[in-house]
Amino acid sequence: MAVLTIQNLHVAVEGKEILKGVDLEIKGGEIHAIMGPNGTGKSTLASAIMGHPKYEVTEGSVTLDGQDVLEMEVDERARAGLFLAMQYPSEISGVTNADFLRAAINARLGEGNEISLMKFIRKLDEKMAFLEMNPDMAHRYLNEGFSGGEKKRNEILQLMMLEPKIAILDEIDSGLDIDALKIVAKGVNEMRSSEFGCLIITHYQRLLNYITPDYVHVMMQGRIVKSGGPELAQRLEAEGYDWIKKELGIEDETVGQEA
To answer: Where in the numbering of this chain does the ABC transporter domain appear (predicted)?
Structure first.
């Protein structure tokens, strides 16, 4: 069973501290959701875990199954079983969706264990049908000309094809209509198993109506300040964050912009 352990994580961007001591453990079989006002460090956490060079880890540790994630290059983190579905997926001209996915799977599997072409095609066809994607999207350049909803659905296709140990979904619901949201949620729910753990970063309860988290965490001022079950997200939807600020004596969110 996979275990991602984050301990006392401090992260700075351009010399400004954004994360100020995050502690979190995600195990296979668990879905965690992080919510919080803008600028509190949610996306910073995702980027730091995956090794974005803009984010400097100044203190703390991140381990995956006991391995030091912070010592790994970005590609090594992906091969070890980490996955990030990005808020704003990049468009890559000249590389088809299918070619990208097959190269990514083979890189994850390692030399000598590459997936056969027929097995890859069967799996790709199956997952695209499950996500109600047009078969033509396999042959289009990666995310080029895709709508926002198509890009997000494509991120879930990558998730289902790569089968990571731990996935981080950074605002995978932003900009989605209700039908696309349901399909994205269906893909994540299909991945649920003891071998798969997931961290969902979201502003809205609506995604959590379709993906029921085991744990909900609230991030403010660069820390996780409150944790609970699905009912916590429902209360935040109904009442906002002011009650938590009052409870904790937080007057204002002044962390700054998060990337």
So the answer is: 4-246
